[in-house]
Amino acid sequence: MGRLNLDLDGLRTLSTGVALGSFAKAADRLGRSTSAVSAQLKKLEEQIGAPILRKAGRVMVPTAAGEVLLSYARRLLDLNDEAVAAVRGVDLEGCVRLGLQEDFGEIVLTDVLGHFARAHPRVRVEARVARNADLLGLVTAGRLDLALAWDDGFDTPHSHSLADLPLRWIGAAAHPELARTTDRGVLPLVVFDAPCLMRQAATAALDRAGIAWRVAFTTASLSGIWAAVAAGLGVTVRTEAGLPGNLCVLDPAMCGLPELSAAGLRLHRAGPALAPAVRRLEDLLCDALIRALPEGVDRGMRAHISDGGGSSAPREEREKRDAAERAPGPDAIRR
């Protein structure tokens, strides 16, 4: 009996659908029709000889067999993607200089840079974690090739918007009631040293709502923000990116806090044209952010990746392609 080769496209669909909590969203993100996604999942079930999904309310969740398959799928896909990157970039060399906000340190430093270093050992990566003004100044001076920064109204000549991330009130997970505990009716805030985009968003929202506030703790580091909030010194305003497990997003209505807007995320380039190694790191960075950030905030990143060779074909074209892939014959090659 021959060895069974699992369908990697199907495994990617399974992994994406479970991660998003919706296979309709997975179809859209992967550029496939819903009927093609259903066919892929059915093929996986036929291959392993057991159901991999079951209904739980209005969503589909993995069965016991599906959970086992999913754990292997993620590892297989990671290895597949790393192998493709390594082969395509076997001749890449040089240096890439990347700057980023602390919020994305865990996503970028542990995932993207580790992946990139293994796939492209001849490329040297220099990474710098800094605040917005420093990052933009370094890009403008040509000392950074790429910088991931919040949109604070100051732009560089070669940048584009990636996403708008909702701002959230953040409090201690162990003591969410602290958000309603004020010092003589004054809300204590934990914030970055001024100037700070999110500090301004918090105080402006409180002023509009007529809620008194005071700065209870300031720091120049995000780790200091997280520690002070966890200790119950006050609440802060950030996005959910990189949120530690000992903190939680507060419900504004329950805590008597005003609603907040969103923070724009921009990718800045040192120039209009990128060296191949820089472009490869940029693509990996955007892909990692798509996986890590909440669904609904990735439109700009998907469009950017499409510009670099991804697929954003209209649904009619995708459906024609999917139909061709399902048709029998030597030309029906699965992509």
Mean pLDDT: 81
- Give the C-alpha Rg: 23 Å
Helical/strand content category:
alpha/beta
Query: What gap, in angstroms, lies between the N and C termini?
Result: 26 Å
How many distinct domains?
Answer: 3
- Give the tally of β-strands: 12
The largest β sheet comes out as: 5 strands, mixed
Report strand order across the widest sheet.
Answer: 4-3-5-12-6
CATH class of the largest domain: Alpha Beta
Please trace the helix and strand order, writing H or E for each element.
Answer: HHHEEHEHEHEEEEHEHEEHEHHH
CATH superfamily of the largest domain: Periplasmic binding protein-like II
CATH topology of the largest domain: D-Maltodextrin-Binding Protein, domain 2
Q: Which overall shape is indicated by the principal axes computed on the Cα atoms?
A: globular
Proportion of residues in β-strands: 15-25%
Unreliable spans: 302-335
